[in-house]
Design the sequence.
């Protein structure tokens, strides 16, 4: 098994402070690996980076169209949103429109990442609700599918028909039998695959067209929805949103916990998957920026890119303290 | 140069999700390395883990006694506190007692880590002030020394007499000429040394007694103050505070940003320094717990230890998702 390779470095003054190693694979639409770093066979949990795979049954079954989901709602079904008023309101309206309620969700509650909404809750002496969970859009999609097929309410149970449908789609598009699953932060099963398997899935998404079969058409719609509604996929200030805006709808991006990042590049017929061994998001964001610049689809001087790679670090008084850059030899 | 070695793993379900590598050294009071993992010669920034070194001039100069600093204030001078009411009030009282003000600090402001104080500020629509900075106790010590020697107000300037005194003390007790410095989050210079140098300094602190010279007596007082006032060194829920309480005053501990951790064990005449390559605090906390258990000074089943090593991870709904454990072969 190959080892992880150095990908990202944090320098302070003239000295190397911290280093990050990882694995990355680029696949084309035929599932062929066109470039790889580290160990393509490293088995990983994609975590939230595979939300567009988890949304395939919602779209290909016709459940999404049966209730008239909009592209913004499809983007939200693939989101790790930050619980801003925009996201909370959209999920609430979605469920209310289906005759469902917050209590039907099974994602749990956590304080929203969005500062304004967090402060509003604190001032109102309100706790967060399940709508604030970063995965509530995915769960709204889960509930929509589950209601469509008239399945039971415990939709995060690994034996629930929804999760079986997700596993089948996941294994087909990764081209691998999943070696197992873990329970994600939002309580849904998260199926494992290799970095190569995840990249293969992203390459397949990149190649999916409106003229394909039901699954391919679903993938095409989800990719377009994500790229066209980047504010619904994450939120203001976040990597996925800012970088998708910077690439003006040409690329769909998704981060996952523990430093996974994926990209779908339909114009290049390429998909990317990467995992930083140590789970550090600052490194996965810097590495995906590096790879997108390497492939010529992102301007390295765009503020959204600069913020994450070759980013000057400043302290509380605005003094320069260091810089985040790519490790020598990576790219 | 030796490589970092695997130290900590995060498992999800039955699969390895993320891994952390690092360097660790144990030194005795004579500066001899008694055990090492990874590269003892890795040059690091100790960050906040060297606050007891930065407090040496304050005590050995007589500045602390000239204004009657208490052991709790000495602990605060070595703290990365969480800006709770306890800490903010203590720093305010300290400076006010010296005829100084918040505006004399040069640490900058950031939102306090303490949840109750954070929420109080938000409800009051107040921004944080410099007292909330986790380093404000260290800076109160800096101001106390600077006032004592009648030096200028820009005490974080690397050429200020305070910083020159810190560098001299730092180089003596690490036994190394520092290869340079970086600017820390709080704007103070942070002098670099090797992991072995930092461990040597911790061994020297462990061996320091009341019967030694002025520097050794200062080290002895600072170690005792930290171990006896753990709530002033960090705060409720934090690793340094909870683990020092668990060891009932027998060991002084200090964390530093980018995953540095040190320990001073006077009864064993040993000091520990460790650095996780990727800067992850969850890993430095797990690794220091592992080393303290390994040396027989911490009960692995104490809740403060269990919270950080062999800790079952749970999601927002309380479901078990995984575990943090030591890498095979480390300890």
Sequence:
């Amino acid at each position: 098994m190959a080892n992880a390779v150095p990908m990202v470095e944090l320098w302070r003054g003239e000295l190397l402070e911290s280093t990050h190693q990882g694995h990355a694979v680029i696949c084309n639409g035929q599932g062929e690996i066109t470039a790889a770093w580290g160990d393509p066979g490293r088995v990983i949990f994609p975590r939230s980076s595979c939300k567009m795979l988890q949304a395939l049954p919602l779209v290909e079954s016709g459940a999404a169209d049966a209730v008239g989901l909009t592209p913004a709602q499809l983007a939200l079904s693939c989101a790790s949103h930050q619980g801003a008023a925009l996201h909370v309101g959209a999920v609430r309206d979605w469920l209310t429109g289906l005759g469902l309620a917050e209590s039907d969700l099974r994602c749990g509650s956590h304080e929203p990442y969005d500062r304004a909404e967090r402060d509003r809750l604190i001032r109102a002496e309100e706790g967060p609700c399940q709508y604030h969970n970063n995965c509530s859009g995915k769960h709204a999609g889960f509930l929509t599918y589950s209601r469509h097929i008239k399945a039971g309410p415990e939709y995060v149970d690994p034996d629930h028909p929804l999760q079986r449908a997700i596993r089948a789609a996941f294994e087909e598009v990764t081209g691998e039998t999943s070696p197992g699953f873990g329970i994600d932060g939002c309580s849904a099963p998260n199926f494992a695959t290799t970095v190569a398997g995840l990249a293969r899935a992203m390459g397949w998404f990149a190649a999916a067209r409106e003229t394909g079969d039901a699954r391919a058409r679903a993938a095409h719609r989800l990719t377009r929805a994500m790229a066209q509604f980047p504010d619904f996929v994450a939120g203001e200030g976040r990597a996925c949103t800012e970088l998708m805006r910077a690439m003006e709808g040409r690329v769909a991006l998704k981060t996952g916990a523990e430093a996974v990042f994926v990209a779908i590049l339909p114009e290049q017929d390429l998909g990317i998957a990467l995992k930083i061994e140590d789970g550090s998001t600052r490194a996965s964001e810097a590495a995906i920026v590096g790879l997108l610049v390497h492939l010529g689809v992102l301007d390295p001087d765009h503020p959204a890119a600069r913020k994450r790679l070759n980013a000057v670090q400043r302290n509380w008084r605005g003094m320069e303290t260091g810089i985040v850059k790519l490790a020598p030899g990576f790219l």
Observations:
- The mean pLDDT of chain B is 97.
